[in-house]
Specification:
48% of the residues lie in helices and 12% in strands. It has 281 residues and is of the alpha/beta class. It has 2 domains: 55-65 and 107-274, Rossmann fold (3-Layer(aba) Sandwich); 69-101, no CATH class. The chain has a 7-stranded parallel sheet with strand order 4-3-2-1-5-6-7, with helices on both faces. Helix 7 links the parallel strand 2 (131-134) and strand 3. The mean pLDDT is 94.
């Protein structure tokens, strides 16, 4: 009878001998992309099922916006730096940006209040309805997760691996904090259980999620998702919505795919009105 391989045998140490599901190098091959996509669907989906997540509200907004006290402190530093070098163009830009961020900082508080209001209204008697779900980063996303944490409720964070590492904010429920490799799968999870998308001022990532959701609603690929834009003056200054209609690029009816609200309470009232069967009274 032939001898069995020894523990230090080249056979046992060969990558080929590793079980496929325990071989990280094999799983990273380009040909295994379809498998990785499946894994990124199943892991968050099954964990959310285990945690009893019935429905969600997506909150998006800038990762760069700070709470008012921090924004004010940053503005003061920029003002002092500009005073020391009043003709420095970079310091002028930094001061102008800090001033704008300070003006937008109250939205951090509104996002936090929204997370608190929704979570305290919906996560009762063991239910997990209208659970706050964000991109998991800082800024507005942190604020919404923080509001849920304020009332000891669950909230979800869908982080994405980026060249410049972004750590998840500390207010996400640890069992519901996920990291994605693929934007496409992350987007699918955002809308999979969503009853609403609440959008605060933000940049490219925020616009991406907003316009993808509007497109899916416009084309009927998703239904019954309320879209609420927080801060009408900001949005109407940023985007000339009526021009889309004037140029015949969208129908006038498409402008009814979203609502405006100024406060957390107004946004929540819109969502409750549109989802009376699911939302608490």
């Amino acid at each position: 009878m032939p001898n069995s391989p020894q523990a230090d045998s080249p056979i046992l140490s060969s990558p080929a001998f590793r079980r496929a599901d325990s071989d990280p190098e094999f799983l990273q091959r380009d040909e295994l992309r379809a498998v990785r996509l499946q894994l990124e669907w199943f892991k968050p989906e099954l964990i959310q099922q285990d945690e009893g997540i019935e429905s969600t509200i997506v909150v998006f907004g800038s990762a760069r916006l700070l709470e008012p006290a921090s924004a004010k402190a940053k503005l003061l530093l920029a003002e002092e730096a500009l005073a020391a070098s009043p003709h420095d163009p970079e310091k002028k830009r930094t001061f102008a940006m800090a001033k704008n961020h300070a003006a937008l900082s109250p939205y951090y508080q509104e996002a936090r209040e929204f997370g608190r209001l929704v979570s305290s209204s919906c996560q009762i008697d063991g239910q997990c309805k209208f659970v706050i779900i964000t991109g998991g980063g800082p800024g507005i996303m942190e604020a919404a997760n923080r509001g849920a944490a304020d009332v000891k409720a669950k909230s979800i964070g869908l982080n994405i691996a980026l060249p410049h590492e972004q750590l998840p904010n500390p207010y996400i429920t640890p069992a519901l904090c996920f990291q994605f490799r693929y934007f496409a799968l992350r987007k699918m999870h955002f809308l999979n259980r969503a009853k609403a998308l609440v959008v605060f001022p933000g940049g490219f990532g925020t616009m991406d999620e907003l316009f993808e959701t509007l497109t899916l609603l416009q084309t009927g690929k998703v239904q019954d998702v309320s879209v609420v834009l927080i801060g009408r003056a900001f949005w109407e200054d940023l985007i000339n919505w009526k021009k889309f209609v004037e140029y015949g690029l969208i129908a006038a009816e498409d402008l009814k795919l979203f609502h405006y609200a100024e406060t957390a309470g107004e946004a929540w009232n819109i969502i409750v009105a549109e989802h009376q069967k699911d939302a608490p009274s």
